[in-house]
Amino acid sequence: MKDSNRFLIRLLPNRVPSWILWTILFTALLGFFDASYLAAKHFAGVVPPCNLFSGCEIVTTSKYSLIFGVPVALLGALYYAAVFFLALLYLDTRNDRYIVLAALLTFAGFGFSLWFMFVQAFILYAFCQYCLFSALTSTILFVLGLAVLRIKIKLENQNEQSTNENNSIRF
Fold this sequence. Notes:
- This protein has six helices and two strands.
- 78% of the residues lie in helices and 2% in strands.
- It has 171 residues and is mostly helical.
- Strands 1-2 form a two-stranded antiparallel ribbon.
- Strand 1 (66-67) and strand 2 (70-71) form a beta hairpin.
């Protein structure tokens, strides 16, 4: 292992800090409310008001607002709910699988956000403030997910090193 990697691994905490977990929970909840609002407006057949930008109606009624007939906002709400409940399960059980799955899920959320930002900027030439907020929450979750994965990789490396050291002592 490179010396710089060893240095970085020593700087990381041994478990996911509680501030990261609470930030994931809070951000996922904000994203859920945002996406749920857009989904509710979609099913009510109402275009959400656009106070910061003009273009919500173009974005939310475009062909890009549906995937196989399902509103993207509904898929976003499900995504945020999944991240929220996985983080909550981790807080309750401390089972690493839950937080790692939540962290991996943020890659999908971030990827979709990048795609939809591209669509707004270069295809529709219109921006939706709710979609921009969702992109922000997805990006925050992605960065926090990277931090979680980095911490978990550190723990795996430490466990592997201690196992190797214990095995080398035995005769």
